[in-house]
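Quick one, tokens below. Sequence please?
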């Protein structure tokens, strides 16, 4: 799911314990992004959707998907066993409809039976850990398992084209984190400590976000003919589309 360095970063108990709390502070749009992604899906409520989650993390996206589609089943791939255990706790009884696969999703062929096909492939906050080349490769492999007319959706981080715009968005980002933390977390106590914390996390986890334009090009190169942007705010976007013939 993530490069080796990133997998190790997310397989540390201390990181896993704080992950969801940190997400609420650092990425408050997560719920909006997942809701936007699910909204575009055309499946009927009782459709037996077969889905592939590239990087289940703590299971937030998968929980929302299974709640909307009671007959859906998910094959969830993640390289960090500690995160998968947290996902199982979050999902509770819903985990009965999830097949968990612990492994690096850059090696998808070795993780999923060759005959397995999907109506939906999705990912959230995972693919930005990959290099551009690996991102194309992973999505292309996943697209091979996607049925014609199936959907690919990605909720993830991007960077601005213009460095000056990126700097301003980073200032807004840091100020928002400090405000939401409300002094309860020393790491996010002020602008300086927050910036240092973010820089350290991004280096440790191997973050490699790309621009929105490049992200759409990646989807095209991976086989999605007409990728679209379904939601966008500052440094986060929901992209994807339908697999055509």
């Amino acid at each position: 799911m993530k490069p080796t360095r990133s997998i190790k970063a997310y397989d540390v108990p201390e990181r896993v314990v704080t992950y969801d709390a940190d997400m609420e502070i650092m990425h408050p749009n997560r719920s909006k992004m997942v809701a936007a992604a699910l909204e575009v899906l055309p499946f009927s409520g009782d459709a037996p959707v077969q889905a592939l989650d590239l990087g289940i993390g703590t299971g937030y996206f998968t929980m929302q998907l299974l709640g909307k589609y009671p007959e859906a089943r998910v094959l969830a791939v993640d390289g960090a066993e500690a995160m998968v255990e947290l996902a199982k706790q979050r999902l509770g009884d819903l985990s009965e409809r999830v097949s968990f696969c612990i492994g690096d999703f850059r090696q998808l062929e070795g993780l999923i039976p060759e005959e397995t096909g999907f109506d939906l492939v999705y990912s959230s906050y995972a693919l930005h850990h990959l290099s551009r080349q690996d991102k194309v490769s992973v999505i292309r492999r996943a697209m091979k398992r996607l049925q014609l007319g199936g959907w690919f959706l990605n909720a993830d981080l991007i960077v601005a084209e213009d460095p000056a715009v990126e700097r301003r968005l980073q200032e807004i980002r840091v100020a928002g984190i400090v405000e939401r933390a409300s002094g309860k977390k020393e790491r996010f106590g002020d602008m300086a400590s927050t910036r240092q914390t973010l820089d350290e996390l991004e280096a440790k986890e191997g973050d490699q976000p790309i621009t929105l334009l490049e992200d759409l090009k990646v989807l095209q190169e991976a086989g999605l003919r007409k990728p679209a942007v379904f939601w966008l705010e500052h440094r986060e976007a929901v992209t994807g589309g339908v697999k055509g013939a």
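The beta strands are 50-54, 73-78, 98-102, 118-124, 146-157, 228-233, 236-242. The mean pLDDT is 91.
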